[in-house]
């Protein structure tokens, strides 16, 4: 069990002093004496104050010390080396004056903050310093190896060791020792600095809520932004350990592909490998829906893994994480791969390539040489400052990020214009057929919300019938709300009655408990018509599909990007590349026109460059 009450101490000899914050002052004193930082036969130790928890201790420690007074140590390949310590030559009892100055500062801060009862001023002699045993090198090196690139709570560190079958005698002592070696930071999960309060796990400053803490019994804060990853509190320490670049040994990694890349795919793939050695830290792969963007990053992944680096592939949705992990394991059979998502088992197994939902990134710190972020325009990453911070914290200092999307946002276009990102454009599908260009249909859809009555124009119904009965295609029918899913399903059942107890029409939305079951059944071809909200706009591919978007003029739901993603469900396979897309609304909105123009422009560009027939 980790110690909970840190102490500020001053360790000094006649030439210099050190001010530290620790739950194991005895070990820290022994360490400094052992390394010759302070003379062993002339040292004095003063325990200035004991604090109620890490958050309060960290805050007051930073308030009473100058930058040059903080312990700064570095560790290199040759072993221990000292950084610049603040040195002071005394004349008339300066140590006593120093102690009094620090005590006055502590008392001033605690009065100002109203936390007198949480701080205890004390003096204490630490006995038997010479008998303090440091952790066994085999043990601390094992722990350090696993901790690299992670930011975890104490309970998560225990799980990390357990899942990797590592047993140590005293985990708390090992963590303190790693801090002394400069290999690990121990910080409060929520940090107070002046008037600012910030979550150190996710970087949020906005959603920090005051509470009475059951753990420390005092007024505390917790972070709402990352609550699903474990409760970040002021009183809860985090253990943060960065990872050195390309430190896992050289090995040749070659991906196995089930098909040859097209000329365009190969060009993008080579461009990404070149990007890894370039000056820019970020690249954007703008790939049209169904273009095979996943495979174009395999060479870049292999390059990083071959040089001993680590790779993260982050995706918004859990179901895609599981599917992609299987694909990547087939392509990289000799690479240790782990899928991380809410509810996944063995989250802390050591590996080289991680496929994770975006939120899982918060458990990593300076861990990855390459991060690939798929569907960067989608929820939950889109518009989330928290997840943007998490991605950047998970990247090593000289690491690279590859963003992938079919629908870049305005923010991406601005950054491209500024030259902040490298653009690689995958504007054509592998089968060399153009993207289906949507037909814009102005048709009144009579819907009475009061009684749930819905009337579809006969020509719309006929187009759906032709798709299913004439072209033998499956049909996506997208609608803007959960309420309309049920209404449209019931209306279409009038035209497509059940036969042999099997429904031709099924509906799904975000609150549907059978969503995954219906999705899998549709993918298997068990029924032809799926009515859905925008939840099915991504990651659903059937060989022969047409797309209908009803109420497409609802711009607050159906933006240009959303419409393009929905249109991207059609024409994805060589079996039916001419799939049809219909945007249907009571008027033709600017977003409908913009989506059609964007698709047309991409086709024209690919046609001019010879990427499509």
Set out the fold topology.
Elements: E1 7-12, E2 17-22, H1 25-34, E3 44-51, H2 54-64, E4 73-76, E5 79-82, H3 94-113, E6 119-121, H4 137-147, E7 150-152, H5 154-163, H6 171-180, E8 185-188, E9 190-193, E10 196-199, E11 208-212, E12 219-223, E13 237-241, H7 263-276, E14 282-287, H8 293-296, H9 298-306, E15 311-315, H10 318-331, E16 337-340, E17 353-357, E18 368-374, H11 385-394, E19 395-405, H12 410-417, E20 422-426, E21 439-442, E22 446-448, E23 453-455, H13 458-470, E24 474-478, H14 482-493, E25 505-508, H15 515-523, E26 529-532, E27 545-550, H16 560-567, E28 581-585, H17 590-608
Parallel strand pairs: 14-19, 14-20, 15-17, 15-18, 16-17, 18-19, 21-28, 24-26, 24-27, 25-26, 27-28
Antiparallel strand pairs: 1-2, 1-3, 3-6, 4-5, 7-13, 8-13, 9-10, 11-12, 22-23
Helix pairs in contact: 4-6, 7-9, 16-17
């Amino acid at each position: 069990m980790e110690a909970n009450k840190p102490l500020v101490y001053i360790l000094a000899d006649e030439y210099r002093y050190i001010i530290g914050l620790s739950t194991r002052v005895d070990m820290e004193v022994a360490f400094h004496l052992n390394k010759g930082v302070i003379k062993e036969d002339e040292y004095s130790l003063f325990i200035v104050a004991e604090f109620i928890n890490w958050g309060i201790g960290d805050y007051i420690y930073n308030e009473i010390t100058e930058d040059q007074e903080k312990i700064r140590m570095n560790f290199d390949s040759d072993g221990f080396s000292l950084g610049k310590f603040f040195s002071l030559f005394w004349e008339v009892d300066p140590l006593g004056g120093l102690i009094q100055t620090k005590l006055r500062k502590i008392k001033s801060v605690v009065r100002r903050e109203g936390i007198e009862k949480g701080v205890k001023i004390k003096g204490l002699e630490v006995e038997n310093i010479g008998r303090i045993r440091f952790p066994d090198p085999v043990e601390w090196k094992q722990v350090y190896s696993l901790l690299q690139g992670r930011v975890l709570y104490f309970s998560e560190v225990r799980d990390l060791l357990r899942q990797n079958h590592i047993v140590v005698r005293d985990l708390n002592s090992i963590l303190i020792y790693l801090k002394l070696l400069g290999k690990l930071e121990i910080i409060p999960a929520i940090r107070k600095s002046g008037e600012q309060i910030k979550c150190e796990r996710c970087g949020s400053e906005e959603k920090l809520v005051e509470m009475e803490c059951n753990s420390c019994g005092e007024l505390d804060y917790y972070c709402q932004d990352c609550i699903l990853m474990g409760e970040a509190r002021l009183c809860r320490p985090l253990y943060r350990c960065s990872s050195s670049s390309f430190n896992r040994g050289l090995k040749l990694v070659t991906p196995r592909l089930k098909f040859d890349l097209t000329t365009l795919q190969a060009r993008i793939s080579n461009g990404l490998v070149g990007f890894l050695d370039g000056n820019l830290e970020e690249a954007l792969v703008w790939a049209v829906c169904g273009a095979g963007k996943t495979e174009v990053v395999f060479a870049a992944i292999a390059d990083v893994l071959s040089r001993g680096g680590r790779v993260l592939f982050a995706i918004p949705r859990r179901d895609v994480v599981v599917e992609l992990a299987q694909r990547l394991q087939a392509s990289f059979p000799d690479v240790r791969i782990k899928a991380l998502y809410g509810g996944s088992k063995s989250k802390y197994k050591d590996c080289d390539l991680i496929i994770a939902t975006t939120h899982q990134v918060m458990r990593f710190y300076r861990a990855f040489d390459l991060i690939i972020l798929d569907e960067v325009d989608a929820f939950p990453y889109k518009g989330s400052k928290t997840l943007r911070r998490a991605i950047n914290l998970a990247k090593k200092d000289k690491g690279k990020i590859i963003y992938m999307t079919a629908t870049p946002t305005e923010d991406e276009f601005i950054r491209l214009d500024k030259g902040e990102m490298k653009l690689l454009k995958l504007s054509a599908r592998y089968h060399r057929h153009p993207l289906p260009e949507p037909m814009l249909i102005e048709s009144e859809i009579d819907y009475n919300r009061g009684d749930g009555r819905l009337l579809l124009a006969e020509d719309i119904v006929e187009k759906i019938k032709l798709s299913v009965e004439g072209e033998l295609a499956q049909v996506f029918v997208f609608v803007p709300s959960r309420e309309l899913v049920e209404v449209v399903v019931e209306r279409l059942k009038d035209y497509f009655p059940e036969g042999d107890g099997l429904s031709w029409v099924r509906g799904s939305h975000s609150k549907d408990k059978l969503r995954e079951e219906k999705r899998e059944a549709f993918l298997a071809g068990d029924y032809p018509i799926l009515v859905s909200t925008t939840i099915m706009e991504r990651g659903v591919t059937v060989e022969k599909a047409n797309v209908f978007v009803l109420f497409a003029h609802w711009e607050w739901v159906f933006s240009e990007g959303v419409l393009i993603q929905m249109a991207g469900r059609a024409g994805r396979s060589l079996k039916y590349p001419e799939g049809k897309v219909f945007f249907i609304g009571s008027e033709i909105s600017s977003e409908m026109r913009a989506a059609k123009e964007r698709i047309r422009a991409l086709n024209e560009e690919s046609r001019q460059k010879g990427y499509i027939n």
